[in-house]
Write a structure and sequence with these properties.
Layout lengths: L8 H14 L7 H11 L6 E7 L12 H14 L3 E2 L5 E9 L7 E15 L7 E16 L5 H21 L4
Parallel strand pairs: 1-2, 1-3
Antiparallel strand pairs: 3-4, 4-5
Helix pairs in contact: 3-4
């Protein structure tokens, strides 16, 4: 037989008070707290390796060729003071994808910039894996005459957001 404690008014009030006291300060804006955690995950990263995906589609909507895109992203990071290296712990994945032109006039494209780094699972710290710890992306539509200009502008803006978040967490001394 299980004996349950008597729930009196003062006990309920004390329990509710404890709930309010231990409620996290960020409960009012969990999205802002989540973004802060993602930015904080950039702290202490000494270098990144850049990997470019999804730029080889052969159509009039092919957004950006691989080599110039890879070189441009690395150069932008280096100008910002972020070291490029073959780091086994942090990879900046850049993805530019496009779809076939609609009626030969409009192209759809998606651009994504994400940082993946090695993490340990909380439930079993012996398990290490790669996980996305920072991510920004955008979708767009452009005329066939504006490809690759628009995806390139979007990619530059997303890489600049990464640079800004990186410098926020790793200020120059």
């Amino acid at each position: 037989m299980c004996v349950l404690p008597h729930l009196s008014g003062p006990r309920v009030a004390l329990g509710l008070l404890a709930l309010f006291i231990i409620t996290p300060a960020w409960a009012e804006d969990p999205v802002a707290e989540f973004e802060a955690i993602k930015r904080a995950s950039l702290k202490g990263i000494e270098s990144v390796d850049v990997i470019v995906l999804g730029t080889e589609a052969a159509s009039e909507c092919s957004a950006l060729p691989y080599e110039p895109t890879h070189t441009a992203v690395e150069a932008r990071l280096e100008r910002a003071g972020i070291r490029i290296g073959t780091s086994p712990t942090a990879y900046l994945f850049v993805s530019v994808a496009s779809v076939e032109a609609l009626e030969g006039l409009l192209c759809g494209f998606a651009v994504s910039v994400e940082l993946q780094q090695i993490v340990r699972l909380a439930r079993d710290t012996d398990i290490m894996t790669f996980a996305t710890t920072w991510h920004r992306a955008g979708l767009g539509i452009a005329g066939t005459s504006s490809i690759p200009e628009y995806p390139q502008h979007m990619l530059s803006a997303l890489v600049d957001q990464f640079i800004s978040a990186y410098h926020e967490q790793n200020p120059k001394k």
